[in-house]
């Protein structure tokens, strides 16, 4: 025969149990504060447009952005913009690029040839870029870099963000009729300005939240071109100006250096182009600083 002994808790112990039950019940009924989602850090992209020798203006723009400590999380470059952009993304500061630009000679990057689908081969430009960035692959640059080109067979924009910088910049700069097209794998590529002179869409596609675009094509040159190459470049610049309109409307800030007096093949006015870039960027700084300040207040920038 088994005996079941029931032990009743003492009065104090029973009271303690009741208090614990009451605490558990009331805490379960208390509304919990909603967990706020983590704030997504903002990415600021600088998009450098096409424009041959006018591209020296990009250096002036970068100098001003740098001086004002504007954060740059990615560089997107087309044609001349890819040339300057690749050096900046690699790790040179704007003043170092300016020093390099002012000592640059046409013969350092231009290899004239008997016309064969172009007057310029492009090998010298490719070699110059590779040597200057010490053969560093694009994916190992300090700042993410995107070189915009055009697949001449499909007519579609193509963006290079991996591999050797020299061939990507060469393809991006290969203005049809001036440079020989570049073969990469099984495709042929030409100047990215053919479809995206200022590649705002590409910047957004690759994650940019804020786009600062630099347009060096809208200020058209009224000077009469001299020679075949100048005529082609002038016609191409008119095309750039017309094509860039749609994408520029999607940029947060557009910087437009006044470089209309500089010919597309005019190396001699590079210093003037740099100064115009500085002026235009300085005028745009209040708008840029307001955007940066807003992002910091939102906790999206340090």
Can you give a write-up of this model?
With 302 residues, this protein is of the alpha/beta class. The chain has 10 helices and 8 strands. The chain has helices spanning 11-29, 57-67, 80-90, 94-103, 106-109, 123-132, 165-173, 200-205, 227-248, 270-297, and strands at 44-48, 74-78, 145-151, 156-160, 182-184, 187-191, 210-214, 253-255. Strands 1, 2, 3, 4, 5, 6, 7 and 8 form an 8-stranded mixed beta sheet that branches. Strand 1 (44-48), helix 2 and strand 2 (74-78) form a beta-alpha-beta unit. Helix 2 (57-67) runs antiparallel to helix 4 and helix 3 (80-90) packs antiparallel against helix 7 (165-173). The radius of gyration is 29 Å and the shape is globular. Mean pLDDT is 86; it is low at 1-7.
Set out the fold topology:
Elements: H1 11-29, E1 44-48, H2 57-67, E2 74-78, H3 80-90, H4 94-103, H5 106-109, H6 123-132, E3 145-151, E4 156-160, H7 165-173, E5 182-184, E6 187-191, H8 200-205, E7 210-214, H9 227-248, E8 253-255, H10 270-297
Parallel strand pairs: 1-2, 1-7, 2-3, 7-8
Antiparallel strand pairs: 3-4, 3-6, 5-6
Brief overview:
This protein is α/β, with parallel strands linked by helices. The protein has helices spanning 11-29, 57-67, 80-90, 94-103, 106-109, 123-132, 165-173, 200-205, 227-248, 270-297, and strands at residues 44-48, 74-78, 145-151, 156-160, 182-184, 187-191, 210-214, 253-255.
Spell out the key features of this protein.
302 residues, alpha/beta, eight-stranded mixed sheet, 43% helix, disordered N terminus
